[in-house]
Specification:
This protein has seven helices and three strands, in the order ααβααββααα. The protein is mainly alpha-helical.
Length: 147
């Protein structure tokens, strides 16, 4: 990872590299599990993002892609019975995407199939899990611009 200060305290750059490496490894495990359940990583990520009903434009923002790409992703999820698209009650031009019961089940199967993530996080004791959860809740809002 990078250099650390002689006290052993990681630098900001060290932490950035460590979090990036953990995130990349987690995403690889997620993508592999999604693939085993017939979905691309983008489709599985979209399925996760519509756990609560989401307008198509907001979904594109969550996925960091163009609205035209989201249409294809949602088309595929709909064809598989994993999500549905409905007109918003307040504005019929706005399409809202919602996960179906089958989609919920598929997402649960994908999460359960993430063997490396389960092994990695399962290796932490209760105190470490609590601390990691608190640290994630502390930095995430700052990373997403909501803090």
């Amino acid at each position: 990872m990078g250099s650390t200060v002689t006290t052993g305290v990681p630098t900001t750059a060290d932490l950035m590299e460590a979090v990036a490496a953990v995130g990349a490894a987690y995403f690889q495990d997620f993508a592999a599990a999604a693939s085993r359940h017939g979905l691309t990583s983008s489709q599985a990520k979209a399925l996760k993002a519509v756990h609560e009903p989401v307008p198509m434009r907001a979904l594109a923002g969550r996925l960091g892609c163009d609205a035209s790409n989201v249409t294809g992703i949602v088309d595929r999820l709909e064809s598989l019975g994993l999500a549905r698209r409905e007109a918003a009650a307040s504005d019929r031009r706005v399409k809202i995407v919602t996960i179906t019961e089958q989609g919920e089940q598929t997402l649960e199967l994908i999460r359960a199939d993430m063997t490396r993530a389960h092994q990695a996080f399962g290796s932490l004791d209760e105190e470490q899990r609590t601390e990691l959860g608190q640290l994630c809740r502390q930095v995430l809002p700052l990373l997403t611009g909501q803090g």
